[in-house]
Structure formats: C-alpha cells, structure tokens
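In the current project phase, we have settled on a layout for protein records. One protein thus recorded is set out beneath this paragraph:
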Amino acid sequence: MTRSTAFAPFDIIEGDRKKGIVLLADHARRDLPEEYGSLGLPAEEFERHIAYDIGVETVTRELAAALDAPALLAGFSRLLIDPNRGEDDPTLIRQLYDGTIVPGNYPMAAEEREKRLDRFYRPYHDAVGAMISSVAHASGKAPFIFSVHSFTPRMQGFIRPWHVGILWDRDDRVARPLIDMLAEDKALVVGDNEPYDGALRGDTMFRHAIVNGYAHALIEIRQDLIAERAGALAWVERLAPIVDAIDRRPDIHQVKMFGSRTGPV
C-alpha cells in the first residue's frame, strides 16, 4: 500500500549521530490531516492531555539542541492513532479517553484502522527504526534511546504527587541512575514506574529498545511544569547534564538482553 506524503507522520531533528543517543517524542504533536477534521471534537479538547503530551515538543527540541543529538517526533495527535501502543493494543485508537467520547473514532471499520496504521503509525515506526540504525552505524555502538513524555497533573479525580516519573521494564541501566540523579534535588518527587508502568508490550520502547537489547528509559514530566516555555527550558537545563552523564557510562552502549515483564521477547 502506498503511504501518504501529504501529511508528515514524523519530524526529524538532526544532531550528531556519532554520540549514540536517540531522542524520541511519541506524543509531541496534536496535528490531524485535513481529511479528519477535528474527529468531531470541539477545539478545546485539543488543548488537553488527551490530544498530545503538553510541553514535550519544546523539551525534546531544546534537549536535542543542548546535547547535539538527533530526535524524532511523531507528527500526529494520539487521538488519530497512538504510536506508543502495539498494533493489537485496544487503546491504539481510542473511542473514549478520560471522559471524552471521540466521534471520529466510532465506529471504527477495519479498513479505516488499517489505513491509519499504514499512513501514520507504521511510517513513524519505520523512521524510528531507521534513525536508531543510522545512529548505531555512525557511532559504532549500541544506541541509548531516551523517550520524552509528559503527564497530566490530575487523572480521573486523582491528583498525582510526582513532578517527574521514569518508566522502565527490566533494563535499569538508564532508569536507575536517572532516578537517583533526579532525586538528588530534594524538592522533586520522582516516580519509579509512576504514574504508569514501563512494561507495556508492543510500545515504542518494547519495539525498538527492549527487543534489541538497547539501553533506554522513558521520562514523564508533569505537564504544568513544562506547559510554558520557561518551565520547559528549566527542565532541559536540568536534564541535559544528566542524560550526557548517563551516555558516558561504560555499560550504556552495549547490547544486553534483559527480557520483559510482559512475557517472552
């Protein structure tokens, strides 16, 4: 099937691929192709966390610049299709999300589901795989993959106490030092596999890092802390030296198979 080039499913930020770092942002954008309109939703729904990870595009772009590392951002809203889910995940295309019904996603014909996979989801993951391979080739070592996300301060009535969370499965080569270094700031509440569990079969980290034995972690920053540019830049200033220090650890650029808590890899 021919994939559409009219709507860019991803955006590449160039950097020094010899450094061995890949930055990813699965939920950086809230864009939709013109043919999908607003999926039947009012404009204010696209200001919410259900449409994208607020603040992440700025953090990722500025972190890439600070590290001189390449990054790849998904170019479409997670309401169209969620690139951080496996193809068989029931939340791949949400019909209901945090109290909001998505009319454009219900009912979902099999043909439409396949169309979205082929035009948006798969090109994004093809690009992620190509960038990781390119970084591996340029650096001559296993890449370090760092995925940037953000989370809403309040979900289903629960006020989340964390400022930041680190998600991981069984490979703690990045997660453990990252948690420890962030926790050195006593003003921060750092979540270990909070507010979500990092073991999600078929997600981006599973698909591109875990199955290949690449060191990785997913960071979740609370959205109210990075919604404004000043806050996003403050987090980049905090994260850049930490990520750089982790990149220099001797075990980070080795292939090591840890498996997954979700089952056989």
About this structure: The chain has six helices and eleven strands. The helical segments are 56-67, 110-139, 175-183, 204-208, 223-226, 229-247.
